[in-house]
Amino acid sequence: MPSHHKKKKQKKYDPPKSNHSKENINPCSEYDRQPVAEVQLESSKPYLVKRSEQVGRYIVAARDLKAGDVIIETPPFVVGPCAETEPVCLGCHSAFQPGSVVYRCEICNWRICSPSCQGLVPAGSHRQLECIPLRDKAVHNHLQTSPAAQVKLMYEAILTLRCMLLKTVDRPQYDRLLGMDPLNDVRQQIPKLWNRNQKEIVERIRNQWGFAEYSELELHTICGIIEVNAFEVGQEPTKARALFPEAYLLMHDCTPNTGHTDAPQTHHLTVRVLRDVKAGEPLTLTYAHILQGTLKRRQHLREEKFFSCNCRRCTDPSELGTNCSALRCTKCPKGTHTADGSAQPRKRKCHCRQCSTVMSCEAVILLLEQLSQQLETIGGNDVDGLETFLRVQGAVLHDNHYLLLSVKHSLCELYGKIEGFLIPQLSREQLKRKETLCRDLLEVVDQLEPALSRLRGTIMYEMHVPLLIEAGQLFQGGVIQRAELRRRLKEVQRLLKESERILALEPEGTQEHGIAEAARDALKNMGDV
Ligand SMILES: C[S@@+](CC[C@H](N)C(=O)[O-])C[C@H]1O[C@@H](n2cnc3c(N)ncnc32)[C@H](O)[C@@H]1O
Fold this sequence. Notes:
Elements: H1 36-42, E1 47-52, E2 56-61, E3 70-74, E4 78-80, E5 103-104, E6 111-112, H2 131-136, H3 140-145, H4 148-169, H5 171-177, H6 184-187, H7 191-208, H8 216-229, E7 231-233, E8 240-243, E9 251-252, E10 258-262, E11 269-273, E12 284-285, H9 294-305, E13 327-328, E14 336-339, E15 349-352, E16 358-360, H10 361-376, H11 383-393, H12 402-414, H13 428-448, H14 454-476, H15 482-503, H16 511-526
Parallel strand pairs: 9-12
Antiparallel strand pairs: 1-2, 3-11, 4-8, 5-6, 7-8, 10-11, 13-14, 14-15, 15-16
Helix pairs in contact: 4-5, 4-7, 4-8, 7-8, 11-12, 12-13, 13-14, 14-15, 15-16
């Protein structure tokens, strides 16, 4: 729990209004449902809370911020298993390895990774929240008799139950959780979603598990709070969802100016600005995948986050010049098709920018679905299969199309990492290939998520390897002289320094932190150039 939290008188839940006032609101005077202590402390924060009709509450920089400045640092309100997940440890949320010893919680009998799992006991975790209620209601019996698909849904319901149990275990925390917008009015208009929640979560918790003391509306509200506001946390083999104070106020943008990271085990969240931000500028986060095309991002945001994105990138058919969603024109040799900026899928058309041929967006979506399915049939480590996909579909899609970018990203990591393609096994052509793939990716990432982007940091680290080897080989072969060698090594150093600068910001124990250490070692080994 954040240290500034003070106990306050209980307030009745007042669902947030979706017709937010247009007026900009000073954090010291706004927040009808905010605990007083928190409002008083807001003024020391690097952000101000505002509100608009279109976005609801959002935050802006309270002063000029420098790339790397931390704007939010917070423990989670609550963490829990992802939607429809395979069974995970209810302590640390790590997946169970096939054949690993089966341990069970001695109280509730649900599976855990080990009796000494550190995640079982902290505040807001299994033992404090659902463990004894699950035992008292013998919920484990349902787990044993249910088919795998139902078991996944039972794990999904755990996070809703955890939030709900806060009402009795930690009422102030529960009240703060209810400060998040569940968008009930919007979600209720989507029968597929509402009815699914009713059947799979609300009725499960109330009727099957026997927690009838919680009303249907309370449980639907928690479902909404999770759907609208939860962050994905953890790294393989741990994957979970978490709700955080403050961070939920970050509005979405498809070219965000903040990035976030969560610490292994505790899932404490750190949000930093990725680039310099001027006072008054909205602080933004992406709720979608950065290397995804506009149609897909907008679809995800509409269906899963319940709004139409009209950011600069979504309304620009070229996606800020990257052509991330462009298809090659079948009628003219140089043309590319891109969707116009309309937010409404039915109205959208994909025009060739050279010859004005028009394709319907439905046809484009269908084609991309087929290509995605084709891609899924290629094994994750199948270098040749992925290269063939790039070659064949490169005739249909722009070089920077997001489907090709995702293949390029996989390949740039595979060259140098898997048996048969380890660094000493790579031919000159394959090393060059790795370099080219990294350059292609960097060119796009520099546009969409510049400066301190984690993706940039990892690509730069990958790219230093072929450049370093090539420089050494060319010098030893007498192809380049000392001055050219020096120039090339300087470039390698630049990549390593930038990669280290970015990834050293990641918490200890993460893969990225490990890469930062490797970059530091590589720089030390290079010595003075
Ligand atoms: C995590 S919440 C952000 C906080 C929220 N605005 C509030 O007042 O509680 C996400 C919701 O905010 C709104 N939102 C965030 N970014 C937006 C954007 N770029 N355009 C429109 N609505 C946005 C959407 O309703 C979205 O479902």
